């Protein structure tokens, strides 16, 4: 990462007239929206400016990224948005990560929300800076601002061709009041947005200059490896401390209790002056654990309990319209089916790690962190330190998928630093990362429907799986918020009688959001069920969806999906399957084509994907995200599933929890719908449709219906 402007200097300069133009947002307590102000105004108001744009006298432009970059492209996307209206070339700007700070608003990188949640404000911010620079230039020339325009980091006077670069105008612009209203460009005039520009972080990631969590060091830093109970609620009874301290380089062995949801996980941290010694010391540990007082779960038992709960328990209503119970009670043609999805590990290429330094009156944290503001809140409460004294610095992430938005591993690092009185880097092994969780919960579904003359009369769905927010709701009386996630909104308008019910289900296994959260499991059940409804109704699966997804944007997406996949020209039993899932403000439709050579295993021949995400930034980034989501979804659908035996995770590394290889990846064709609707998410919506589309394709080819994941392609 470039760091030509330090944050301290950034904020100091932003409060000094004449030092440059600093522009950011001010959130007055009673205001409904943010106000754009410059550094001079911030100083007058007595507030610390959350500078998003800084232009120094040399003309150097620094743009801030307030969210985590874990491969999804926000490092460039946010800058690309600002640069579009600011009229600067993207390869001439400096991008920096913001620290965790409530002045930046929500900094949680999750829910595919970064662009969709900030693009309108950032466009306005860039346009505001541009107009202030134009006004400053017009004043210098004593000409009307209407005779001036901005381009390539300069303001140009149309009649004369005279130019000022932004650095020459920064001082004067910094003294101007930000205009209340600015005119934004129409999409047709974009020069950067919607263009496939190469990402700024790629060079750093290929030449080794990008700083990931494992790369970060501070003076005097020690290293720690932590041995945790293989069963999540186990506690230490005894261990061989004296023997471990004999390992060269090992300094200390300390007991640590990090918070995981509403409980604490106990472990033993082996602290050493280098990572290798910490690893050797940990291997020398001999720990006796007390694993009593909680259930030692088995995967097979979990599935059976979920099935039984779906059949016997009433549950909590999540959404209901009409009277599906009455319709189903009288129906003569019904479907009543069970779908099941497994637990999943996050398995990011970069295992968890974190550097922490407990100073007593303040705490500093560095690492691959998806949610710096959540970490600030959590550490402040756990360590009884004021929030503003918890300083969270983001590095690049080697994948996150939701795991690195959790607060347990920074908390553990802070506890160890406090205990040893020094900064420490805690590094999780691949086995730690895989087996300790938290995990995407496995979920079972009971899907019922009534049909008359090829039309749906009622749908009733029950869901049994761990609630990701249960630990935050002690009363546990409200339904799981994710029960309807992934079920496209137009279905609620075209199906008169629908109910969704959450069947509360708990195990000792710690659950956590996983890429696309519940849409990843719901999508499989709901879109597999929609295919079975189409078959029962005697309708083509694509036409059946068109009938019930009665919406203009949906119809355009379906038209595109039909066109690119050749759906209407496919042969009978040709091995084609479709699924359409709406999640995180976007809709993705996918068609999967499969075949099965004589005597061979089933092969995924191709995947066509069409995404409607509304307003978007970089088409190459979107295609990369959808492709990556499909590859991850293919692994989850056909290869990996976390299983448990006697209360322990059974799968420990990529040898038994395989990721999809290049040789196993089919050709993927991604198409983006072009419209000016509000921006939706991109990083997650590409994942949910793959599993149901694949299962539906397998049925089309073989007549075998898959209702439980993962799918063994060798035995289908």
UniProtKB/TrEMBL annotation:
The molecule here is called Isoquinoline 1-oxidoreductase, beta subunit
A molecular function annotated in GO for this UniProt entry is: oxidoreductase activity
The positions making up the signal sequence are 1-33
Membrane-spanning segments: none
Q: Does the keyword Signal apply?
A: yes
Q: Where is the Aldehyde oxidase/xanthine dehydrogenase a/b hammerhead domain?
A: 207-293
Q: Which UniProt keywords apply?
A: Signal
Specify one Pfam family: MoCoBD_1
Q: Which domain of life is it from?
A: Bacteria
Question: Could you confirm whether the keyword Signal appears in this record?
Answer: yes
Say which species the protein is native to: Cnuella takakiae
């Amino acid at each position: 990462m470039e760091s030509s402007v330090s944050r301290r200097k950034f904020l100091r300069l932003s409060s000094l007239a004449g030092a440059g133009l600093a522009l950011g947002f001010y959130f007055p307590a009673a205001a409904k929206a943010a106000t754009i102000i410059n550094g001079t105004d911030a100083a007058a108001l007595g507030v610390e400016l959350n500078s998003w744009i800084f232009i120094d006298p040399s003309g150097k432009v620094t743009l801030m990224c307030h969210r985590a970059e874990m491969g999804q492209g926000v490092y460039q996307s946010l800058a690309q948005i600002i640069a579009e209206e600011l009229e600067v070339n993207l390869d001439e700007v400096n991008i920096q990560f913001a620290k965790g700070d409530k002045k930046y608003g929500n900094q949680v990188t999750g829910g595919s929300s970064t662009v969709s949640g900030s693009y309108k404000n950032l466009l306005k911010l860039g346009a505001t800076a541009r107009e202030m620079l134009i006004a400053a230039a017009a004043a210098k020339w004593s000409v009307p601002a209407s005779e001036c325009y901005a381009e390539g980091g300069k303001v140009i006077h149309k009649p004369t061709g005279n130019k000022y670069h932004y650095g020459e105008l920064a001082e004067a612009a910094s003294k101007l009041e930000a205009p209340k209203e600015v005119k934004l460009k129409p999409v047709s005039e974009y020069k950067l947005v919607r263009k496939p520009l190469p990402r700024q972080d790629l060079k750093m990631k290929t030449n080794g200059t990008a700083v990931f969590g494992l790369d970060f060091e501070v003076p005097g830093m020690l290293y720690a490896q932590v041995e945790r109970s293989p069963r999540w609620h186990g506690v230490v009874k005894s261990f061989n401390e004296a023997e471990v301290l004999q390992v060269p380089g090992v300094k200390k062995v300390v007991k640590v209790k990090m918070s995981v949801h509403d409980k604490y996980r106990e472990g033993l941290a082996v602290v050493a002056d280098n990572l290798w010694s910490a690893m050797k010391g940990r291997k020398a540990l001999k720990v006796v654990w007390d694993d009593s007082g909680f259930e030692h779960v088995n995967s097979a038992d979990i599935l059976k309990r979920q099935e039984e709960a779906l059949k016997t328990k009433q549950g909590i209503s999540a959404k209901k319209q009409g009277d599906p119970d009455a319709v189903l009670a009288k129906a003569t043609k019904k479907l009543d089916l069970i779908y099941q999805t497994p637990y999943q590990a996050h398995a990011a290429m970069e295992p968890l790690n974190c550097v922490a330094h407990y100073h007593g009156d303040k705490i500093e944290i560095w690492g691959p962190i998806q949610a710096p503001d959540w970490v600030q809140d959590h550490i402040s409460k756990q360590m009884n330190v004021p929030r503003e004294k918890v300083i969270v610095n983001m590095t690049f992430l080697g994948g996150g998928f939701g795991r690195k938005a959790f607060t347990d591993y920074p908390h553990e690092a802070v506890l160890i630093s406090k205990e040893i009185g020094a900064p420490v880097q805690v590094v999780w092994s691949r086995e730690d990362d895989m087996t300790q969780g938290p995990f995407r919960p496995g979920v079972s579904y009971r899907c019922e429907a009534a049909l008359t003359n090829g039309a749906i009369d009622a749908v009733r769905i029950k869901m049994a799986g761990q609630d990701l927010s249960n630990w935050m709701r002690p009363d546990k009386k409200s339904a799981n918020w994710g029960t309807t996630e992934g079920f496209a909104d137009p279905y609620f308008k075209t199906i008169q009688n629908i109910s969704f019910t959450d069947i509360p289900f708990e195990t000792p296994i710690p659950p956590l959001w996983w890429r696309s959260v519940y849409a990843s499991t719901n999508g499989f059940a709901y879109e597999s069920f929609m295919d079975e409804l189409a078959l029962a109704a005697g309708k083509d699966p694509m036409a059946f969806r068109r009938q019930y997804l009665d919406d203009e944007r949906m119809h355009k997406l379906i038209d595109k999906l039909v066109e690119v996949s050749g759906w209407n020209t496919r042969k009978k039993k040709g091995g084609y399957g479709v699924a359409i899932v709406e999640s995180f403000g976007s809709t993705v439709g996918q068609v999967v084509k499969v075949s099965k050579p004589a005597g061979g295993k089933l092969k995924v021949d191709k995947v066509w994907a069409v995404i409607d995400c509304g307003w978007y930034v970089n088409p190459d980034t979107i295609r990369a995200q959808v492709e990556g989501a499909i590859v991850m979804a293919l692994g989850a659908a056909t290869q990996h599933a976390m299983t448990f035996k006697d209360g322990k995770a059974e799968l420990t590394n990529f040898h038994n929890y395989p990721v999809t290889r290049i040789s196993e990846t089919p050709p993927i064709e991604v198409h983006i719908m072009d419209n000016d609707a509000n921006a939706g998410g991109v990083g997650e919506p590409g994942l949910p449709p793959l599993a149901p589309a694949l299962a539906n394709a397998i049925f089309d080819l073989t007549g075998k219906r898959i209702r439980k994941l993962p799918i063994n392609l060798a035995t289908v």
